[in-house]
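so i finally got all the pieces together for this one. its four components total, 1274 residues if u count the protein bits. some of the lines might not be protein, just check the labels. i wanna see the whole assembly predicted at once instead of chain by chain like last time, that was a mess tbh
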Amino acid sequence: MPIIVWQLAFFVGPVLFMVAMSFFLVKNYRMTEAFEFVNWAKMFSKGYFWSSYWHTVWIATISTLCAMCLAFPAAFALAFKASENTRRWAIFFLIIPFFTSYLVRTFSWFVILSESGVVNAILGTVGLGPYTMLNTHIGTLVGYMTLTLPLVVILQTVTMANIDRTLIEAARNLGCKPLAVIWRVILPLSKAGFIIAAVFCFILSFGDFVAPFYLGGSQEPTLPILILDTTKSGQQWPRAAVIAVVMMATLFTLAFTAIAIAYRKRSTS
Amino acid sequence: MTKPAKSKSSLLTNRRDFLRVGGGAILAAPFINKVHAAPVEINMLAWYGHGEPDVVAEFEAANNVKFVPKYYAGGDNMLALIAQSPPGTYDIILSDGEFVQQLNAAGYIEELEPADYPFDDMLHPDFQQFPGHWSDGKLHSVILRGGHLGVSYNKNAITAEEAQSYACFWKPEIKGKVGHFDWHLPNLGMISLFEGNAADLWNLDDAAWGAVQDKTMSLREQIGGFFDYGGTFNSLKNGEMQAMCGIGDWITGTLERDGAPVASVIPKEGGIQFTESYCIGKNSEKADIVKKFMQYMLSPAGQVKSAQMAAYPGFCVTKGGRAALIEADPKEAMRSHQMDGMANEPIALINEGRIHYRDIPTQQSLEDWNDFWSEYKNA
Amino acid sequence: MKKDGLLNVVLGGYVVLVFLFIFAPIFFSIVFSFNSQRFPTIPLGEFSTEWYVKILDDPDILEAALNSLIVSFSTAILATLLGFCTAYSDFRYNFRFKGPYLALILLPPTIPLIIMALAMLAWFSKIGISGQLWSIVFAHSVLTAPFAMAIIRLRLNQMDPDLESAAWNLGGTEWATMRHVIFPFCKPAIISAMCLTAAVSFDEFAVSWFVSGLNKTIPVVILEIVQGNIDPQVNAIGTFVFLISITLVVLAQVFFIGRQHKKSSS
Amino acid sequence: MTKNLVVFDKIHKSFGNFVAVEEMNFDIKEGEFIAIMGPSGCGKTTTLRMLAGLDAPSSGEILINDQVMNDVKPHERDTPLVWQSLALFPFLTARENVEFGLKMRGVEKAERKKRALNWLDKLGILEFQDRDISTLSGGQKQRVALARSLVMEPKMLLLDEPLSALDAHLVIRMQSVLTQLQKELGITFVYVTHSQSEAFAMADRVVIMSKGEIAQIGSPRDIYREPANQFVAEFVGRNNILSGTVESVEHNRAKLNTPSGDFFVEVKAGQLTERDSASFVISADLVHLSAGEPDSKNTVACQLISEEFVGSMVTLFLENASGHEFKVQMQERELSKLELDLAKPIWLSWSECSAHVLGC
């Protein structure tokens, strides 16, 4: 099958080569093929690597929680309150951001969020601020939301719109209060879709370097920034590969666990 | 070894790094060649901005040539690009002063005829005999311009007096408003100067290096962010950052022209200089016209163009150039202190020994400096 | 009942807020692109088309635009072809290791782009194909094929499996059947897939930036302007990119969702 | 006898562990209308698909016109099929659908159009030629599907439950359309169905299949009156089946002891001997009813359980003392003539020549 060859050449090849590269050595600014654990030992012994790692996990988790919570009411409204047609248009509009340059949008936030920017200008008219938002975690999170929120809203909306309405009516009919319907009927039925949305949100936040760099000011660099820093300093590609492999291992573990939970059949107890 | 455009590269560099790693990679002959037709094309390898119309348009029109610029983002990036292209690809190369030696050693550049260039007119003797530009009495490169790095600050937050020392970065009022240009060399170089290492700023023994690290760490809680070229620009302009460590006039100068209340000065502890020089690519078939261009750029008119360059400013190296600038654009001349007898006049600063040409650490490896920088960012 | 009405208003308002958040950066980037200030602040400067004039005058940007078009067009064709073949083999055949086979195609989006970029540049350099426009095309085709696969697979799901047998039965060879039955049936999905993969490729910057060598594409130019000589050209380019992408998305929408809608309503 | 068009020679087909068709041997004659019938999963569709080359036999040979077809690709065969799902191409118009096969065979455009229009006309759907398939009604689609196959002018047409998606009244219409077409064209129809009424109404011969095996082949009358075994007897419907042990056999006449009583049946010489277990079947329409015990053999007293009216026909479901269920079918008019008191016991009787002994 030519497809397999193609994917092997241009997908598996790069990934495996990167893993191999994490064992290479750098001598006199040139990479030499080798099989040594020095890069691993070096990265794992560095305090900044681990603090970056936990910081990245932490901020990607916060980002995921934010996106899931911010998206839910909107997705709920689109799924249950809006007409079929409105929903179609809403999803269409939510797709648009994926096809506008993320960089340009980030640059735009740069201006909007700055101390002389739009948000502070508006707050200023009611006597508030100015607040510092750039170069803080707020800036980073705004960037992550720019990247992930449309996707999460789409996934949540589609998931909930696919719920069989009669199940909800049945629950109401059996005396379930509205909030309890959400908790006991809608969320369990949407579990798989929501978990996938959360996983994608986490992956995107975990791997994005633009938001933490441009909006977060690299304050506590995340792993993607560390990768870039490592590559530009002294040809340390093998160490960048170590970071990348650790990131991939983290994401794969997370994704497989999440998918296992999402599609776990209830045991017959 | 601080240099504006290099700094601007920050993120950019890794692409180039890899191009070098993949030694065998063949770079397609510049695709752009097919786009333009008629005039003679001159392939230029340079820092960003040097092939832009504001610099070259006049020369192009007068000589029916067309510059096809390829911009690099660091000295080793430049070397990699040349190495990966067929010989003769680049007709003119704009190099960092200290990389000329390596270009020459690798045989990438042609020998020059000293009589073709106005060496008598140079503002400083160092510019006539710049390290590495000559070897065995043969000339390989001519200096075009330079720039100094020091304290860059917002005039509303820091007074001119305070800016006279790197100590102003520690000013309590600007906590969280000090930015770093995200590259360890200029930053650590400045701290080294602040530590009083002066001419030995790159040559630190363990104790001095430890002291530099401690001093740097003490700055950490003042810091509001780490920026590349664009981020540095933006955060100084919009007031997010009130002072910036690791840059100089090449950024604030551009902002000043745009009306921002920012400035750069060389503090009493001293500053760092970047230098840019022209070379003719080996086996270039257009050496004659390139020579003409270099003569043009070193002529008073060309020096004015260089000083006014939109991407980032640099000071004139010839007396004629400076005189022409003062006449043509006194405002820019004034702004960049390029008038004899002005405070912080660049040549005077060099003569006073307050400026140090850039270099790399001699007792530590670059890797040590890098690792420390990563730790610092994560602290 | 009244409480429900209030709830609807609140929810409706919330949806509007979410959309405001999502569209604010797009909106302001268009506004800034017509603003005379080099570093936009509030209040805005004067209306100006300076940045548009600048990008249209800049041969580098035009060259990058041409590169982008070549890359996204080639990517669209390759990725859609890959996506189609995978979708079809998944639809049609059952074989051992089908799981791993599909994973091979579908996994790339789960790996952060920066890692893919790193890995691809390393690998491409190793095998000697880095730094060319084609390198970007190869990389993008791998990254976007899953989207094409998903769209086409959904379409194939709607196909009566007898259709193919019917064509053979009427004297169509395998190839004729592919050409006269499977392709026409999947045509709306194929066009959507091409539009979407083209749009994704047109906007992707991390991998392009790493593997492109000197052949910059538009997003790489944007990245370099944001990193380097920052100015509102970025917004002007962004506005153009926005228009092009929107056109592609609308086309995809019209061909795929629109088609289905028509079918279901008739 | 006309010559064999198709020969199935020891055909066996399995999908993995599942055996779809178990060693099958039968012939299809030129110009006959043959129906293959059986419950779902009996292998009838697989048989048809093997004929069309869509499935390959695991072993054995299929011959068409004395030529072994096992390795002939579907598109090289002249065996158009009418699909249960119709499998019309949704992206083509009615006429383009009909032209499809001709296009595949490289017939040139004008000729293609001419022949397609001819068939659309013959089937009465000429006016819909440029319509999208999705805008046609079920019956119209059916005709397009037929035209699409017949335009190929095949020697043999395969039909896979083509009427199963239609409304009842349309089914009857299409049945007559199909039989007429078949007579007119004189080609072989191989018709797969699970519906007894369709098969019996149209076919010259019926093949009954069960679990991958042929249970019986014969004319509809043979199958109805003389089912070869219990499966066929049950499958074709309204039959009463009684099983028991042979007590004695005299002059082609056997006496059976069953839980419902002793009964006499006609047998062929040597068909049964004493102490054999045997079953026999009496069609529901051959059973007589009477209020009092009739003066004959082969009688059973029953209690009525329920009645079912279909048009003018009525089926009575009755049960005797030992709990065996009997079905009796007659014209409603005749039933009312009998003036039975349905609350009282009713006597069933039949002549011994109408009982048919099943093979084992």
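Chains D and A do not touch (no CB pair under 8 Å).
Chain D has a mean pLDDT of 86.
anyway lmk what u think
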